[in-house]
Task: inverse folding
């Protein structure tokens, strides 16, 4: 009978609560045409380490990502949309972790490389060739 309550002893519940003073920083990511980088992957690195992620996640549909820095300094956000576009943003967080005092500088945004361009052109050419083949086969 010593194991009768083992299931309840090992289980743990879940919950949530609102954080009253999170001091979040929100950053919007976008393409050069102005469209948001919606649902892009984000990795946040603290001033303490550029090798270990402090946080990761995705932008929302409007390209916005928010995080709560734990100390002042340069925070780096690496963003990738999975289609070859990448952005490196550096956010300087001031004393008191006040979002209004944060400044940013654009790192290097990237455009799709030659491999992605060749693959896209190849796909379009294949669609045209298959379409022509199917039209010829019907006629």
Result:
């Amino acid at each position: 009978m010593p194991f009768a309550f083992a299931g309840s002893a090992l289980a743990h519940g879940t919950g949530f609560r609102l954080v009253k003073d999170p001091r979040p920083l929100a950053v919007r990511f976008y393409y050069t045409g102005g469209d948001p980088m919606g649902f892009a992957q984000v990795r946040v690195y603290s001033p303490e380490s550029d090798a270990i992620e402090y946080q990761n996640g995705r932008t929302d549909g409007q390209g916005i990502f928010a995080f709560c820095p734990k100390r002042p300094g340069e925070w780096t956000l690496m963003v990738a949309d999975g289609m070859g576009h990448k952005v490196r943003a550096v956010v300087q967080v001031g004393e008191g972790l006040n979002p209004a005092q944060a400044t940013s500088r654009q790192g290097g945004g990237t455009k799709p490389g030659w491999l992605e361009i060749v693959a896209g052109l190849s796909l379009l050419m294949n669609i045209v060739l298959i379409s022509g083949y199917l039209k010829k086969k019907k006629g």
Q: What stands out?
A: The mean pLDDT is 84.
